[in-house]
Amino acid sequence: MKRSTNIFLFLFFVQSLLAQSGPFSFLNNINGTYPSSTNPFSSGQIISPNTSSTGIGHVGVVANPGTDRYNCRNWGTSTSINLGRYISWIIIPNSGYDISFASLSLTIQCSQTGPDELAVRSSVDNYASNLYTASGIQGDAVTGDPQISNHIINLSSITNRTTPTIIRLYGYDASNVNGTMSVNDFNFMGTLPIKLLSFTAKTIENKTQLSFSTATEENNDYFSIERSSSGIDFRTVGKVTGAGTTTSIQKYTFLDENPFPGTNYYRLKQTDFDGQFTYSPVITVQFDGAGGFRLFPVPVKDQLSLQLDEPDAFESQWAVYNALGQLVLSGILPEDQSTLDLNVSDLAPGMYWLQRTSGRARSSRMFVKE
What we know:
Layout: E1 16-18, E2 23-28, E3 46-47, E4 51-59, E5 62-63, E6 70-73, E7 86-93, E8 100-110, E9 117-122, E10 132-135, E11 147-154, E12 165-172, E13 181-191, E14 194-204, E15 207-228, E16 235-246, E17 250-256, E18 262-272, E19 277-279, E20 283-287, E21 293-296, E22 303-308, E23 316-322, E24 327-333, E25 339-343, E26 350-358, E27 361-369
Antiparallel strand pairs: 1-14, 2-3, 2-13, 4-7, 5-6, 6-13, 7-12, 8-11, 8-13, 9-10, 9-12, 14-15, 15-16, 15-17, 15-18, 18-19, 18-20, 21-22, 22-25, 23-24, 23-26, 26-27
């Protein structure tokens, strides 16, 4: 069946993040004679590119002298958390980026009259719930020796953050308001994604040209180009080598020389050197194979009309798919009938494709439901 190559051109620009593509870290071993006298303290911190932080700071507690540790006193003596007394961090992604957190490792030191319990909360739920708690962290009341304890806090519930994230460490149940608790060092871990700037598709003669670009890449081994005729079952049709690790814009192209008649769905599978992978959004391009048809009105509110350029001598099938490639309506167009009215009033507002199949040929048209 001859393919019409210039009837339909679909160009889709997407700004998206390929999640879990590279590591994120923010750490500080906290060195100096009196670090907590600076609020916040950022000297010596190391943080991944495309992110920033004001450092480690404190609110409601008082800086206390201490060497190589961020030391504070005036913690609450109540057995309940005082939400106004805490040590905190603010982690900020650059515009257009997001962070998915994994963990926070802390070394805590408490005096014999300092807090005996701690809790970690975040701005994600406005500090309503604990991400982590620990008790028995107070120093030895008999010998007067401080206690140093290590803590690993699971932050995997904090994902795809495009705005500043604040993590707070609360100390409470101190024996004396002059008791101290300090952070000796900290290390946030997570993922900072590849930034996919654009992903487009267009027809060139009987072929599909795919173009995509990235703003940054980290440990990017390659892209697999995957194609589907249904939007559900994808198969690899090609591979493009990635740039490894780079902060400069990279541009890529791929030519699919054997697209399906009708609608072709494409996506990118990005794979790291360690085998981790993730997918881009799906885009489509159209090659007409069945007889031409029109849809009107577009946009449509209640009733959509399909009109063939010329009637078929045998019946054909039609189906409507949403933007996710899910079937939402279907039916039969009888032989020798050139028009069909469809009730689309129950469809949610958005973008849809009407696909018509006649024998082995297939064609699609996009419409918008108001």
